[in-house]
Design goal:
The chain has 695 residues and is of the alpha+beta class. Among the domains are: 209 residues, no CATH class; 116 residues, Maltose phosphorylase, domain 3 (Sandwich), CATH 2.60.420; 121 residues, no CATH class. The chain contains 17 helices and 24 strands. The longest helix has 26 residues.
Length: 695
């Protein structure tokens, strides 16, 4: 069995190199990308970085062997919709009867994208064959002129889809769906060198350009942004500037060519159509749509030099991070419209914080780093990664959160009809978004430009990074996120001069977030330190990175020690929901109290000011964790009682059954006593005393 595992691992590594050669051959031919402007900092592809740890490696393997097959099974209805359209296009008499959903095909496309990323790191002939079969159906579903939207191909219309092609582009998701198709097509082309899906995407994009921007074109921005990101990826792989220009046109007409009358989903702010994009100064409306748009603006700014885009998203980012983001990195609090609230409107129990919005927040911050090179963007990225994002999926890889509250009472139904994790959703964008993000996660670890190599995230891994002068092998040995000691082995293929940038996380500098939305109430006395080849060195911190510039040679060892003290966090007083409350973090991990550990409703717990917590290692069904333990108090049965207090990582909550949970815990005994009185009253009302029973 061990030999088999070794062979499988070797096969996966050979597959990576083979695919790089194949992709390079195609890109250097018909689909060569032209030399042009781009991000000043370039990411290192996930195909060049491999996790070797006990934290991310098992999760990525679970994504490959469990989540991807599971999601393919769950998205089979979308395949049937597409097959019905294929039959209609062929002129068959007996077209299968289906009831296509507005955006279920987008879920399928995201699964294909994630599966393609998985194929780039580990060969799977059965998976590839399955995808080829689905792609054959997608190709057949596309009409001769390039249109691809099942409902209207089949002549099915309803209020959400419009009466015909592009009749209700505001909410039909026609362009949203094909935006995800474009991303899937590029990913599959890079994985296999096969052009069929890419050709479908190109044909679709040219059709859209003609219909929207040709003579007498529709010239209207879609309700849900996504096509812009997909078009940028098409441009990158083909070098055809038509697609880049289309993406920019869709952004530039947003908030210009359409007037809204209505509220909720028909309000102009809902789809960020209230102003031209360059005049927008704060995040509003549907959070996922918003961060997809900001990500596209960053892409196009990098590729075109459009400074007005950068000015807008810089301002928007400041407002979002400093006034509209939960401690976990979640965004979009409104439970009815999935949208941003007012400044400092950040509830805990009845809050939305969609998993897709967390992922979009990661996309946005990654791009902002590539634009500006400041570690603060990765401070936010990391906060979302280990908390708001990771909470969205269980350790088995088959149950999900759509929404991510910071409090639960065991009664309030918050997860699209459930008060627990769900296997799937009628709107399943979150599970498939997690899937495609997890499959390429190692691609966020490193970045580079010229003679600078950036270490943005920490985790035990191996990487090969091509700098202009030489290829650099880099190996991390660490137990991060549980331990802040990171040993980096630097192995250039030849002696090379470059600057190594090591991110010094904001949380290690008593700054949980870049602004003052959340602050550390605990002082940190010990600062990060660096040992180079056995000798402690002084280092300069520039834009949040410790910078070491030198001639590097094979065998150089850098030891970075980032102290991981337990931090008590308080929020800005303008957040009314967190008055007299504290939260806890250790390293990048936000903690929460769960009822199952503390044996009482977590709303009844209070943390006296002098409470001291200590970290302990625990093994749970959701894996090895570092928990926090100590003494606390709770008001139970009308009295103040000392309890053994335990907090676990927020991402791990509700893996052991339904119960109460709190990230923010009161430090005020009066508040806990009031909560205890309410709970006692509920219990008394729930009890019935009777002296006689009727049969």
């Amino acid at each position: 069995m061990q030999n088999q595992k070794k062979n499988n691992g070797k096969f996966c590594r050979i597959k990576i190199k083979f695919l790089i050669i194949i992709s390079s051959a195609f890109v250097s031919g018909t689909y060569a990308q032209k030399e042009n402007m781009d991000y000043p900092i370039k990411p290192v592809s996930f195909t060049e970085v491999r996790f070797t740890d006990e934290f991310w490696k098992p999760r990525i393997e679970t994504n490959r062997v469990t989540t991807i097959p599971f999601a393919l099974k769950k998205t089979e209805p979308a395949v049937r919709y597409l097959d019905a359209a294929r039959c209609k296009n062929l002129g068959l008499q007996n077209v299968p009867k289906v009831e296509p959903h507005r955006f279920h095909t987008s879920d399928l496309y995201k699964v294909i994208e994630g599966a393609a990323y998985s194929l780039q790191t580990c060969a799977d002939t059965n998976l590839e064959k399955k995808l080829d079969d689905i792609i054959e159906i997608i190709e057949g579903a596309q009409t001769k002129d390039g249109y691809l939207y099942v409902a209207h191909i089949l002549g099915i219309n309803d209020g959400g889809m419009g009466k015909g092609r592009y009749d209700f582009v505001l909410h039909s998701h026609e362009l949203y769906n094909i935006g995800h198709l474009y991303e899937a097509a590029v990913a599959y082309f890079r994985a296999t060198g096969k052009r069929k899906l890419l050709d479908v995407a190109i044909k679709s994009a040219k059709h859209v350009n003609k219909v929207f921007f040709g003579k007498d074109g529709i010239n209207q921005a879609p309700g849900h942004q996504e096509i812009e990101i997909g078009l940028v990826k098409l441009y990158r792989v083909t070098g055809d500037k038509l697609f880049l220009n289309m993406a920019k046109k869709f952004l530039d007409i947003r908030g210009v060519n359409i007037k809204f009358e209505g509220s909720g989903t028909m309000d102009a702010q809902y789809a960020q159509q209230h102003k031209p994009v360059i005049e927008q100064t704060e995040p509003v409306g549907h959070a996922v749509r918003a961060v997809y748009m900001y990500s596209a603006m960053a892409d196009i700014a990098a590729l075109t030099g459009e400074r007005s885009y950068i000015k807008a998203i810089d301002t928007i980012w400041e407002n979002m991070v400093n006034k509209k983001m939960s401690l976990t990195g979640g965004i979009g609090v409104n439970t009815k419209t999935e949208s941003f609230g007012d400044d400092y409107d950040l509830p805990n129990l009845k809050v939305y914080n969609e998993t897709c919005a967390a992922i979009g927040n990661m996309f946005f911050n990654h791009r902002m780093f590539l634009l500006h090179g400041n570690a603060k963007y990765f401070d936010v990225f990391e906060r979302v990664l280990f908390n708001g994002f990771l909470a969205g999926i269980n350790i088995e890889g088959n149950k999900f959160f759509y929404t991510n509250p910071l409090e639960a009472d065991g009664k309030y139904i918050f997860n699209h009809g459930k008060k627990e994790r769900s296997e799937w959703f009628g709107c399943a964008c979150c599970p498939v978004n997690i899937l495609r993000t997890m499959a390429q996660l190692s691609g966020y670890m490193y970045a580079y430009n010229d003679d600078n190599l950036y270490v943005c995230l920490y985790g035990q891994s191996k990487a090969e990074i091509q700098l202009p002068e030489a290829k650099i092998g880099i190996k991390q040995i660490t137990e991060y996120p549980w331990d802040g000691k990171i040993k980096l082995s630097i192995n250039p293929e030849k002696k090379t001069n470059f600057s190594l940038h090591l991110r010094i996380p904001g949380w290690s500098q008593n700054k949980p977030v870049p602004g003052d939305l959340y602050v550390s109430a605990s002082s940190q006395t010990r600062q990060p330190s660096i040992i180079l080849n056995g000798k402690k060195i002084n280092f300069e911190i520039k834009n949040g990175f410790a910078v070491i510039k030198r001639d590097w040679k094979t065998g150089d060892i850098v030891q970075l020690d980032i102290p991981m003290a337990i931090k008590k966090i308080k929020s800005n007083p303008k957040i009314k929901y967190n008055k007299n409350k504290v939260a806890f973090e250790r390293g990048p991990i936000i903690y929460c109290a769960e009822e199952i550990d503390n044996k009482v409703k977590t709303q009844l717990i209070y943390i006296p000011e002098k409470t001291e917590l200590k970290p302990i290692e625990k093994k749970e069904k959701f894996g090895k964790i570092t928990a926090l333990t100590g003494k606390a108090h709770a008001f139970v049965q009308g009295g103040d009682k000392e309890i053994e207090f335990t907090a676990i990582p927020y991402y791990a909550w509700q893996n052991r059954g339904i119960g109460s949970m709190n990230v923010w815990i009161t430090d005020n005994s009066n508040d806990a006593e009031k909560a205890g009185a309410v709970e006692l009253e509920r219990e008394s009302l729930g009890k019935v005393t009777a002296s006689y029973f009727y049969p």
